[in-house]
Elongation factor P-like protein (Botrimarina mediterranea), 187 residues
Amino acid sequence: MLGKDIKPGAMVVYNDAPCVIENIHVQSPSARGGTTLYKFRARNIVTKNKVDFAMKGTDMLPEADFSRRDVTIMFSDLESVHLLDSESYEQYSVAREDVAEEMQWITEATTGIIAMIYNDECVGITIPASAALKITQCDPGVRGNSATGRTKPVTLETGVTIQAPEYIAEGEVIKVDTRTGEFLGRA
């Protein structure tokens, strides 16, 4: 893939590691005959480290041999999360600390989980942008509190505590943005 054709979100191989491009800065030449320089900020998918590099528009980087598979979570233990491919019934394991952020929004009923497979190994998962979760603990709502924009902490069935409007009661199912942890509404 030519440097000038790389866009944010592209999967490339840099220094023998798969990277996803997060940001691109184009530096135009200041003199005649100068070449345009593309500066990339990427994230190594395996180590989760940021990688910065620059290249000319005519330089090449290979695309990562990367596939996305629809999976369900079979079970998790202290070290790993075990996944089952929905089509081929292949099993994958991924280190629990690599997917800790995503796991706080996942229940047994969660669908739409995508495993990122690189060289026949799961290197991470992506989850839907919102999740419907049941409230397991919160303070009771007081009559008349729906007119204000105040919030209260609520604990969800996965153990995560978020802020929700005061009129929300224990036992209700709410929608939560999995990227920011914000309350979206009743489910």
Notes: The chain has three domains: 3-56, 66-126, 130-186. The mean pLDDT is 87. Helices lie at 100-103.
